[in-house]
Amino acid sequence: MCGIVGYVGTENAVDIIISSLKKLEYRGYDSAGITVLNQKLETYKTVGKIADLEKIIPANFTGHIGIGHTRWATHGKPETRNAHPHLSSNIAVVHNGIIENYMKLKEKLISQGYEFLSDTDTEVIAHLLHSTIKNNTQFSLLDAVRHVMNEMEGSYAIAVLYTAEPDHIVLARKDSPLVIGLGNNGFFAASDVTAFLRYTKNAVYVNDKELVLISPTGVEFYNNDGQQIEKKVDIIEWDEEAAEKAGYEHFMLKEIHEQPASIQDTYAGKISELEGRVILDELKMSDDQLKNLQRITIIACGTSWNAGCVGKYLFESLAGIHTDIETASEFRYGDPVLCGQVFTLAITQSGETADTLAAIRSSKAYGCKAAAITNVVGSSITRETDSVLFTRAGPEIGVAATKTFTAQLIILYLMAIHMGTVRGRLTPENARDILVGIKQLPGQVQKVLNNKNIIKECAEHYAKVQDYFFIGRHVNYPVSLEGALKLKEISYIHAEGYAAGELKHGPLALISSETPVVAIATKGHTYEKVLSNIKEVKARGAEVIAIANQSDTEINKYVDMVLRIPDCHELLSPVLSSVVLQLLAYYTAYARGCSIDKPRNLAKSVTVE
Length: 609
Ligand code: AGP
Known about the structure:
Layout: E1 3-9, H1 13-23, E2 31-38, E3 40-47, H2 50-56, E4 65-71, E5 86-88, E6 91-99, H3 102-111, H4 122-135, H5 141-149, E7 154-162, E8 169-174, E9 179-182, E10 186-190, E11 202-205, E12 210-215, E13 218-222, E14 228-229, E15 234-235, H6 240-244, H7 251-257, H8 259-267, E16 271-272, E17 277-278, H9 287-291, E18 295-300, H10 302-319, E19 322-327, H11 328-331, E20 342-347, H12 354-364, E21 369-374, E22 387-390, H13 403-422, H14 428-450, H15 452-461, E23 467-472, H16 476-491, E24 494-499, E25 517-520, H17 527-538, E26 544-549, E27 561-565, H18 573-591
Parallel strand pairs: 18-19, 18-20, 20-21, 21-22, 23-24, 23-25, 25-26, 26-27
Antiparallel strand pairs: 1-4, 1-10, 2-3, 2-4, 5-6, 6-7, 7-8, 8-12, 9-10, 9-11, 11-15, 12-13, 13-14, 16-17
Helix pairs in contact: 3-4, 4-5, 8-13, 8-14, 10-13, 10-16, 13-14, 14-18, 15-18, 16-18
The structure holds 2-deoxy-2-amino glucitol-6-phosphate (AGP).
């Protein structure tokens, strides 16, 4: 999730672009750049924040037309050569999104003699536009962009400058946000209105597969057939802070609602449904190495540990590999029994958690092959392991991890399916069933979000309790741990997650009419057992809230409230149940007036031990 901006007008484009980028810095902040068109393209870009970009811009750098970018790396480390804008001779491009088929396009362009200076998918767009115009001399830039849109697979919002057409910017979008601002002294383009709200409140939202041409005299909108179209102008009521949260009251709620997109972005380019196959080149393990794998040791903290615990069940059930889940702060001071046949997997959204970094370093001393799942390209963990698998959830501002958790689950599904098929444990048909189910998750998560009011009512009903219990079995056991952690960290209610079968070995003593119990009772091979655990706590006076599948008509009889998720594959339900639990925690904390994005005593990234 990067931030792109553009400006054409009578003001100094450099000032406008820099201040607009600052407003988009929450979208990504590992490198930035600007190009202004004064007969020729003048570009400045650097690794680091906008403030670092300002430092390298000469005082006399001005112009009336330009584009800019602030980056959240997905392809290519945070380095100046990977910063945008990317150029191809007399064309400059800024891009937010992911070009899934960039490798194939890149090979084609290299065979045409194009040289690539970066590792990004975006540079492909610049060269593709250049080659399209070179091979179709009658094409305008608008024609070329429309042509290239049919070649690109994935998501994009792009802004393009072309010296042969020096007085306008051409933009286009698909699955990435783009909005145009209509000002008195010029016209603006940006990934969201935050960028230009102080200049104008008149905004036009660009839809998928639409193109825009901004010139000093106005803005033209085109559909994908090249026909000019009329667009509605919206008057933005939000102030800048609200806009940063896209109108949500808290970053946590915004990030919960971003999960359909973050899940899709995370599996983008990795699933071949037809073949029932996963493409996971970044794992860097040969089929033989995967076949000979004897054990996996997952190392993590907090929410990432809970994701890793789901991973344990997935690797054992889908790939048949014995898997341990280790708490990093314990692992680093323990005496783990490891050897070269053990594969260690660090899970850390920030990539900077001190305990996880130290633990994975100590595991490598045993000759283990190590990999990491992280959300931050260029983070410290990426330099500690042999391979890195990136979640593509974009920056997560709220301290409580939400979209990065479900994105971690997606990577774990893909790894377990890949290992299972390579090891012959999983047939292509079984793999296809789960892969088809994964591709349905964005839509199913959206359904859960659309029904959030029921979850809000439930949260408000129990908001005053002192203690809360969460129970689940198999993959839902770690989900119950995650539900409890989310509630603890933002509502300050004492909450515990338990393997449902564990209650009668002690915790049942704590159950009473004062302790609501959330039972994760989604369909699967342990469903009946969870039902009996529900009866167990009901018998001790507890009120029970069940998370259950849509088609479950039985569950109502046994519980006080039911929070529904769509029907799905048993192993995929943790993604949907987690969204329910994130909302339950959010609305409980909201009802208790807690500081949701910055809860007391906690930090987003724990860089000390
Ligand atoms: C989760 O909501 C918390 N922010 C915390 O438990 C977090 O998951 C933990 O600190 C691990 O962080 P990491 O994924 O960045 O390593």
